[in-house]
């Protein structure tokens, strides 16, 4: 060993030990999120998978390695049909929420001048969330029912002579209720994106002679697409997994997949099939999120 | 009985209370742990019992019969007494999870309606395995101004006159109802072929369905508001509607009606707990059952119970025929359904079928 090497050696050691300390520190930092991830994500998913591969015999869970439950989800009536129906209701809710939310978000982002008014409207969007979901869903019964405000109003005005029974207890009322309840998510999501539209762009466009419609179509709308997509994903997911609206305002055929899962857990005690349905939905959800992530990435405008 | 009335409510309460259920506060008289429905250990009648016997009662509420079964099967020590329904009692007896009842230690049973002294769902090998408690008959109800109160068949449920005007219970009891109408005697053990016929019959009823109800209170509201004019429900719906002045007919279909009945059962190993029999005898007394009726609105087997009720409650109870032996004829009492998952699948298929 040369003198130089001898002189360098302690430094190397100290670098090495510093790295070791850093590694240890890193581990220490990583430990909580890793633990969180393991306890709240990995283990539950593993349990779900484990449950879905077994079956129930006379109220007892028998572990196994069978894919029968997944086959049942796809081949036996009504599971796949109900998943598709739930997806349809989720999609309608997402589209309607976006349509309802966009003008409000637009107004909030571009036309409200004072901060105080902006805050007030913002608050009005959020305030319904302080009330219980049940109460809000229930309120729609009193609006849409045979003796509800809508029917009484229509009769008073002479448009109809008998209560219109088409308003309540069908898919329409389910979508209506879900749209009302979940629209705030779409508003906030679209608003957050609209806030990012640089005023300089709009001013420049105006200077170059663009009219309002053109500015909206060529600048604002393209920039806001990721916000619409994000809001739609949230409202779709919430509506897809809902089980209260179909029970409260749904009709005889408005059963949704979460209702079926609840039944399987409670009445039938068929946890394996319920777990299999859960996994199918999670997989579909992952696909959807990946697709939307890709879409958001594609549509994100860079400045 | 999957106590339906408050299925959701129960699930939530069970989840919330379940975690606090076992808080121990030992007293001289000993401890008693109950695994039962909400309302089966209400303080209005538990407190007098505790004062009288010195036994401390811990109640753990459950939402479904399966919860009772799975808790008891997964190991002892979880409870001393349980209150399963008649579609579950025999499953526990056959699984050797409960101990027989020594009737000499429950003298109040002498006052029971004869049908509840040794009901089929509690008797095996000549021994009694449960003390009957809350019970009820699944009523077929109708707005008396629309449907003839003397209608004696379930057939009216399929009458196209009532398109979009009926509401049936969102439960496999409705599967049983259709099976009874089809004349199947083995309601609780139907073959695949019979189940397919039942399914077709239920889908044929769908044009008449306004909504499948989820709680008995909801059914009351549907009738009161005119959204529905009939269907199946529990006694409490009739009581609620009559109290509001609505004329509601309590039909007696010749095809029979469903019946549920809960029983107190002793978890194996707990028969030596000195608090077990005092509780069984206490809850079988007319006084305690009257207090329980105030909480749940259910029927109770002690014939003298009605005399302990206040005027109005007694009148409503009697009008429902709860004290009349005739009510208990032609009741198709619930039994364990071996293929309940299949029944439920049929029921979900019916619900998912488009009108």
UniProtKB/TrEMBL annotation, chain A:
Bilayer topology term: Multi-pass membrane protein
TM ranges: 26-50, 89-110, 119-140, 172-194, 215-240, 273-295
GO biological process, one term: transmembrane transport
GO CC annotations on file: plasma membrane
Highest taxon listed in the record's lineage: Bacteria
Domain ABC transmembrane type-1 as annotated: residue spans: 83-292
Gene3D superfamilies on file: MetI-like
One Pfam family this sequence matches: BPD_transp_1
SUPFAM superfamilies (UniProt xref): MetI-like (SSF161098)
Location relative to the cell: Cell membrane
Transport listed as a keyword: yes
Keywords, comma-separated and alphabetical: Cell membrane, Membrane, Transmembrane, Transmembrane helix, Transport
Family: Belongs to the binding-protein-dependent transport system permease family. CysTW subfamily.
Protein name as annotated: Spermidine/putrescine transport system permease protein
Species lineage: Bacteria, Pseudomonadati, Pseudomonadota, Alphaproteobacteria, Hyphomicrobiales
Automatic annotation (TrEMBL), chain B:
Keywords for this protein: Periplasm, Signal, Transport
GO biological process, one term: polyamine transport
Major site of localization recorded for this protein: periplasm
Gene3D superfamilies, sorted: Periplasmic binding protein-like II (3.40.190.10)
Compartment annotation: Periplasm
Matching CDD domains: PBP2_polyamine_1
Protein name, entry field: Spermidine/putrescine transport system substrate-binding protein
